[in-house]
Amino acid sequence: MKDLSNLINYRSDVKVVDATLRDGGLVNDFYFSDDFVKDLYQANIKAGVDYMEFGYKASKDMFDVNKFGKWKFCNDDDIRAIVGENNTDLKVAVMADVGRCDYKTDIIDKSESPIDLIRVATYLNTIPAAVDIIEDAAKKGYEVTCNIMAISNAQESNLDVALDILGQTPVDVFYIVDSYGALYPEQIARIAETYTNFAAKYNKKVGIHAHNNQQLAFANTIEAVGDGVDWLDGTYAAMGRGAGNCAMELLLGFLRNPKFNVYPVIQFIEKHMNKLKEDGVVWGYDLQYLMTGLLNQHPRTAIQFTNEKRKDYAQFYQEVVAHD
Known about the structure:
Low-confidence stretches: none
Helix content: 40-55%
CATH superfamily of the largest domain: Aldolase class I
Number of domains: 2
Radius of gyration: 19 Å
Order of helices and strands: HEHHEHEHEHEHEHEHEHHHHH
CATH topology of the largest domain: TIM Barrel
CATH architecture of the largest domain: Alpha-Beta Barrel
Number of helices: 14
Structural class: alpha/beta
Mean pLDDT: 96
Largest sheet: 8 strands, parallel, barrel
Shape: globular
Number of strands: 8
Protein backbone atom coordinates (compact mmCIF):
# COMPACT_ATOMS: atom_id res chain seq x y z
CA MET A 1 0.00 0.00 0.00
CA LYS A 2 1.40 3.35 -1.04
CA ASP A 3 2.07 5.85 1.71
CA LEU A 4 -0.77 8.35 1.34
CA SER A 5 1.45 11.16 2.61
CA ASN A 6 3.40 10.83 -0.66
CA LEU A 7 0.26 11.84 -2.55
CA ILE A 8 -1.68 14.11 -0.20
CA ASN A 9 1.26 16.04 1.21
CA TYR A 10 4.14 17.51 -0.78
CA ARG A 11 7.82 16.68 -0.72
CA SER A 12 10.29 19.53 -0.84
CA ASP A 13 12.61 17.25 -2.84
CA VAL A 14 10.26 17.18 -5.84
CA LYS A 15 11.66 18.99 -8.88
CA VAL A 16 9.64 19.80 -11.99
CA VAL A 17 11.42 19.96 -15.36
CA ASP A 18 9.82 21.67 -18.37
CA ALA A 19 10.77 19.76 -21.54
CA THR A 20 8.50 21.69 -23.95
CA LEU A 21 11.26 23.15 -26.14
CA ARG A 22 13.28 19.93 -26.30
CA ASP A 23 10.63 17.22 -26.70
CA GLY A 24 8.21 19.61 -28.39
CA GLY A 25 10.99 20.68 -30.72
CA LEU A 26 10.97 17.17 -32.19
CA VAL A 27 7.53 18.02 -33.60
CA ASN A 28 8.40 21.29 -35.37
CA ASP A 29 12.16 20.89 -35.94
CA PHE A 30 12.79 23.35 -33.08
CA TYR A 31 11.39 26.35 -34.93
CA PHE A 32 10.03 28.35 -32.02
CA SER A 33 9.82 32.13 -32.16
CA ASP A 34 11.91 34.16 -29.72
CA ASP A 35 8.68 35.52 -28.22
CA PHE A 36 7.49 31.97 -27.59
CA VAL A 37 10.73 31.04 -25.81
CA LYS A 38 10.88 34.27 -23.77
CA ASP A 39 7.26 33.88 -22.68
CA LEU A 40 7.84 30.21 -21.82
CA TYR A 41 10.84 31.18 -19.69
CA GLN A 42 8.76 33.77 -17.82
CA ALA A 43 5.83 31.36 -17.43
CA ASN A 44 8.13 28.75 -15.91
CA ILE A 45 9.51 31.27 -13.44
CA LYS A 46 6.01 32.37 -12.39
CA ALA A 47 4.80 28.76 -12.20
CA GLY A 48 7.64 27.77 -9.87
CA VAL A 49 9.09 25.23 -12.33
CA ASP A 50 12.59 24.16 -11.26
CA TYR A 51 14.34 23.48 -14.59
CA MET A 52 13.67 24.54 -18.19
CA GLU A 53 15.18 22.33 -20.87
CA PHE A 54 16.00 24.52 -23.86
CA GLY A 55 16.73 21.73 -26.34
CA TYR A 56 19.65 19.61 -27.51
CA LYS A 57 23.38 20.18 -27.75
CA ALA A 58 23.34 18.45 -31.15
CA SER A 59 26.42 18.00 -33.32
CA LYS A 60 26.63 20.56 -36.12
CA ASP A 61 28.63 18.03 -38.12
CA MET A 62 25.80 15.49 -37.96
CA PHE A 63 22.82 17.87 -38.26
CA ASP A 64 22.43 20.66 -40.82
CA VAL A 65 21.98 23.95 -38.97
CA ASN A 66 19.91 25.22 -41.90
CA LYS A 67 17.29 22.50 -41.42
CA PHE A 68 16.57 23.04 -37.74
CA GLY A 69 15.76 25.88 -35.39
CA LYS A 70 18.41 27.04 -32.96
CA TRP A 71 17.16 24.98 -30.03
CA LYS A 72 18.41 21.83 -31.73
CA PHE A 73 21.89 23.17 -30.94
CA CYS A 74 21.42 25.43 -27.89
CA ASN A 75 24.35 27.76 -28.42
CA ASP A 76 25.16 29.41 -25.12
CA ASP A 77 24.73 32.88 -26.64
CA ASP A 78 21.21 32.00 -27.85
CA ILE A 79 20.25 30.87 -24.35
CA ARG A 80 21.78 33.98 -22.80
CA ALA A 81 19.73 36.15 -25.19
CA ILE A 82 16.64 34.71 -23.50
CA VAL A 83 17.72 34.43 -19.86
CA GLY A 84 20.40 37.10 -19.50
CA GLU A 85 22.20 36.36 -16.22
CA ASN A 86 19.17 34.28 -15.13
CA ASN A 87 19.02 35.75 -11.64
CA THR A 88 16.03 33.56 -10.80
CA ASP A 89 15.30 30.26 -9.06
CA LEU A 90 14.76 28.59 -12.46
CA LYS A 91 17.71 26.53 -13.72
CA VAL A 92 18.61 25.98 -17.38
CA ALA A 93 18.98 22.47 -18.83
CA VAL A 94 20.02 21.00 -22.19
CA MET A 95 20.13 17.43 -23.47
CA ALA A 96 23.26 15.71 -24.72
CA ASP A 97 22.25 12.68 -26.80
CA VAL A 98 24.89 9.91 -26.84
CA GLY A 99 26.41 9.63 -30.31
CA ARG A 100 24.76 12.81 -31.53
CA CYS A 101 26.69 15.54 -29.74
CA ASP A 102 30.20 16.97 -29.65
CA TYR A 103 30.22 17.37 -25.90
CA LYS A 104 33.95 17.90 -25.48
CA THR A 105 33.87 21.08 -27.55
CA ASP A 106 30.24 22.25 -27.48
CA ILE A 107 29.76 21.98 -23.71
CA ILE A 108 32.06 24.56 -22.14
CA ASP A 109 32.87 25.06 -18.47
CA LYS A 110 29.84 25.83 -16.33
CA SER A 111 31.53 29.00 -15.05
CA GLU A 112 31.29 30.46 -18.58
CA SER A 113 27.83 29.11 -19.50
CA PRO A 114 24.19 30.00 -18.67
CA ILE A 115 23.45 26.25 -18.48
CA ASP A 116 23.09 24.52 -15.10
CA LEU A 117 22.12 20.95 -15.97
CA ILE A 118 23.24 18.50 -18.66
CA ARG A 119 20.73 15.72 -19.33
CA VAL A 120 22.52 12.76 -20.89
CA ALA A 121 20.24 10.57 -23.04
CA THR A 122 21.33 7.00 -23.66
CA TYR A 123 20.13 3.52 -24.49
CA LEU A 124 21.29 0.59 -22.39
CA ASN A 125 23.79 -0.50 -25.04
CA THR A 126 25.54 2.90 -25.00
CA ILE A 127 26.00 3.25 -21.23
CA PRO A 128 29.84 3.38 -21.47
CA ALA A 129 29.62 6.35 -23.85
CA ALA A 130 27.08 7.97 -21.51
CA VAL A 131 29.51 7.60 -18.61
CA ASP A 132 32.11 9.60 -20.59
CA ILE A 133 29.65 12.48 -21.11
CA ILE A 134 28.53 12.37 -17.46
CA GLU A 135 32.09 12.54 -16.20
CA ASP A 136 32.99 15.32 -18.64
CA ALA A 137 29.94 17.42 -17.67
CA ALA A 138 30.48 16.92 -13.93
CA LYS A 139 34.15 17.85 -14.28
CA LYS A 140 33.07 21.07 -16.02
CA GLY A 141 30.85 21.91 -13.04
CA TYR A 142 27.35 20.91 -14.17
CA GLU A 143 24.55 19.03 -12.51
CA VAL A 144 23.95 15.86 -14.55
CA THR A 145 21.07 13.46 -15.11
CA CYS A 146 21.13 10.24 -17.12
CA ASN A 147 17.95 9.45 -19.05
CA ILE A 148 17.85 5.74 -19.92
CA MET A 149 15.56 5.56 -22.94
CA ALA A 150 13.23 2.78 -24.12
CA ILE A 151 13.07 1.29 -20.65
CA SER A 152 10.05 -0.82 -21.63
CA ASN A 153 12.41 -2.95 -23.77
CA ALA A 154 14.98 -3.45 -21.03
CA GLN A 155 15.74 -6.79 -19.42
CA GLU A 156 15.84 -6.47 -15.64
CA SER A 157 19.35 -7.90 -15.35
CA ASN A 158 20.71 -5.42 -17.92
CA LEU A 159 19.00 -2.54 -16.14
CA ASP A 160 20.54 -3.57 -12.82
CA VAL A 161 24.01 -3.60 -14.36
CA ALA A 162 23.44 -0.18 -15.98
CA LEU A 163 22.22 1.43 -12.76
CA ASP A 164 25.15 -0.06 -10.87
CA ILE A 165 27.59 1.42 -13.41
CA LEU A 166 25.84 4.82 -13.37
CA GLY A 167 25.73 4.81 -9.58
CA GLN A 168 29.51 4.90 -9.53
CA THR A 169 29.62 8.05 -11.69
CA PRO A 170 29.03 11.66 -10.56
CA VAL A 171 25.51 11.64 -12.09
CA ASP A 172 22.89 13.26 -9.84
CA VAL A 173 19.68 11.66 -11.14
CA PHE A 174 18.70 8.37 -12.82
CA TYR A 175 15.75 8.87 -15.17
CA ILE A 176 13.03 6.35 -16.00
CA VAL A 177 12.08 7.08 -19.64
CA ASP A 178 9.00 5.42 -21.15
CA SER A 179 10.00 6.31 -24.72
CA TYR A 180 7.30 4.21 -26.37
CA GLY A 181 4.45 5.06 -23.99
CA ALA A 182 4.08 1.34 -23.42
CA LEU A 183 4.18 1.09 -19.63
CA TYR A 184 1.33 0.93 -17.13
CA PRO A 185 1.32 2.32 -13.57
CA GLU A 186 1.85 -1.14 -12.04
CA GLN A 187 4.99 -1.56 -14.15
CA ILE A 188 6.17 1.95 -13.27
CA ALA A 189 5.86 1.03 -9.58
CA ARG A 190 8.13 -2.00 -10.02
CA ILE A 191 10.66 -0.10 -12.13
CA ALA A 192 10.66 2.80 -9.67
CA GLU A 193 11.46 0.37 -6.87
CA THR A 194 14.51 -0.87 -8.80
CA TYR A 195 15.68 2.68 -9.52
CA THR A 196 15.12 3.98 -5.99
CA ASN A 197 16.99 1.01 -4.50
CA PHE A 198 20.06 1.83 -6.58
CA ALA A 199 19.57 5.55 -5.92
CA ALA A 200 19.58 4.91 -2.17
CA LYS A 201 22.71 2.78 -2.49
CA TYR A 202 24.60 5.51 -4.34
CA ASN A 203 22.92 8.62 -2.89
CA LYS A 204 21.24 9.65 -6.16
CA LYS A 205 17.77 10.90 -7.08
CA VAL A 206 15.28 9.34 -9.52
CA GLY A 207 13.28 11.06 -12.27
CA ILE A 208 10.59 10.10 -14.79
CA HIS A 209 9.91 11.17 -18.38
CA ALA A 210 6.65 9.69 -19.69
CA HIS A 211 5.00 9.52 -23.13
CA ASN A 212 1.28 9.56 -23.72
CA ASN A 213 0.65 6.82 -26.31
CA GLN A 214 -1.89 5.12 -24.04
CA GLN A 215 -2.96 8.33 -22.29
CA LEU A 216 -0.98 7.27 -19.24
CA ALA A 217 1.81 9.86 -19.13
CA PHE A 218 0.18 11.77 -16.27
CA ALA A 219 -0.98 8.62 -14.47
CA ASN A 220 2.50 7.08 -14.71
CA THR A 221 4.12 10.28 -13.48
CA ILE A 222 1.95 10.61 -10.39
CA GLU A 223 2.36 6.88 -9.76
CA ALA A 224 6.10 7.49 -9.74
CA VAL A 225 5.74 10.40 -7.29
CA GLY A 226 3.97 8.09 -4.87
CA ASP A 227 6.82 5.60 -5.29
CA GLY A 228 9.47 8.12 -4.22
CA VAL A 229 10.51 9.51 -7.62
CA ASP A 230 11.43 13.18 -7.20
CA TRP A 231 12.25 14.62 -10.63
CA LEU A 232 9.20 14.98 -12.87
CA ASP A 233 9.14 16.01 -16.53
CA GLY A 234 6.20 17.84 -18.06
CA THR A 235 5.46 19.84 -21.20
CA TYR A 236 2.96 22.61 -21.82
CA ALA A 237 -0.23 21.21 -23.41
CA ALA A 238 1.62 17.85 -23.38
CA MET A 239 3.64 18.90 -26.47
CA GLY A 240 6.21 16.31 -27.43
CA ARG A 241 7.26 13.77 -30.01
CA GLY A 242 4.33 11.73 -31.30
CA ALA A 243 1.71 11.30 -28.61
CA GLY A 244 3.38 13.90 -26.42
CA ASN A 245 4.28 13.88 -22.73
CA CYS A 246 2.86 14.44 -19.27
CA ALA A 247 0.97 17.74 -19.43
CA MET A 248 2.52 20.44 -17.24
CA GLU A 249 -0.93 21.81 -16.42
CA LEU A 250 -2.03 18.42 -15.08
CA LEU A 251 1.18 17.89 -13.15
CA LEU A 252 1.27 21.29 -11.42
CA GLY A 253 -2.44 21.00 -10.70
CA PHE A 254 -1.77 17.72 -8.93
CA LEU A 255 1.32 18.62 -6.91
CA ARG A 256 0.49 20.01 -3.49
CA ASN A 257 3.63 22.09 -3.11
CA PRO A 258 2.51 25.72 -2.63
CA LYS A 259 5.53 26.95 -4.62
CA PHE A 260 3.88 25.70 -7.84
CA ASN A 261 1.24 27.81 -9.61
CA VAL A 262 -0.72 26.42 -12.55
CA TYR A 263 -2.22 29.77 -13.64
CA PRO A 264 0.83 31.04 -15.63
CA VAL A 265 0.84 27.71 -17.47
CA ILE A 266 -2.80 28.17 -18.47
CA GLN A 267 -2.05 31.72 -19.63
CA PHE A 268 0.87 30.53 -21.77
CA ILE A 269 -1.18 27.71 -23.34
CA GLU A 270 -3.95 30.16 -24.22
CA LYS A 271 -1.51 32.56 -25.87
CA HIS A 272 0.94 30.19 -27.58
CA MET A 273 0.10 26.48 -27.62
CA ASN A 274 -3.32 26.80 -29.22
CA LYS A 275 -1.79 29.01 -31.92
CA LEU A 276 0.81 26.32 -32.66
CA LYS A 277 -1.98 23.83 -33.29
CA GLU A 278 -3.89 26.34 -35.42
CA ASP A 279 -0.69 26.82 -37.45
CA GLY A 280 -0.64 23.09 -38.22
CA VAL A 281 1.84 21.71 -35.68
CA VAL A 282 0.58 18.22 -34.80
CA TRP A 283 1.15 16.25 -31.61
CA GLY A 284 -0.87 14.34 -29.06
CA TYR A 285 -2.75 11.11 -28.48
CA ASP A 286 -4.21 9.42 -31.54
CA LEU A 287 -4.98 5.85 -32.56
CA GLN A 288 -1.71 5.29 -34.43
CA TYR A 289 0.27 6.14 -31.28
CA LEU A 290 -1.95 3.91 -29.19
CA MET A 291 -1.08 1.02 -31.52
CA THR A 292 2.70 1.44 -31.27
CA GLY A 293 2.35 1.89 -27.52
CA LEU A 294 0.31 -1.30 -27.16
CA LEU A 295 2.92 -3.19 -29.16
CA ASN A 296 5.86 -1.57 -27.33
CA GLN A 297 7.27 -0.24 -30.60
CA HIS A 298 9.17 2.94 -31.39
CA PRO A 299 6.60 5.53 -32.63
CA ARG A 300 8.51 6.30 -35.86
CA THR A 301 5.94 4.42 -37.99
CA ALA A 302 3.08 6.25 -36.27
CA ILE A 303 4.86 9.58 -36.81
CA GLN A 304 5.20 8.76 -40.53
CA PHE A 305 1.49 7.81 -40.61
CA THR A 306 0.67 11.19 -39.07
CA ASN A 307 2.93 13.15 -41.43
CA GLU A 308 1.33 11.44 -44.43
CA LYS A 309 -2.10 12.47 -43.09
CA ARG A 310 -3.30 8.90 -43.31
CA LYS A 311 -6.60 7.92 -41.69
CA ASP A 312 -6.65 4.17 -42.51
CA TYR A 313 -6.12 3.12 -38.91
CA ALA A 314 -7.16 -0.49 -39.39
CA GLN A 315 -4.69 -0.95 -42.25
CA PHE A 316 -1.95 0.67 -40.16
CA TYR A 317 -2.70 -1.71 -37.31
CA GLN A 318 -2.21 -4.68 -39.66
CA GLU A 319 1.13 -3.19 -40.77
CA VAL A 320 2.53 -2.66 -37.28
CA VAL A 321 1.33 -6.05 -36.04
CA ALA A 322 3.07 -7.69 -39.02
CA HIS A 323 6.34 -6.01 -37.99
CA ASP A 324 6.02 -6.81 -34.31
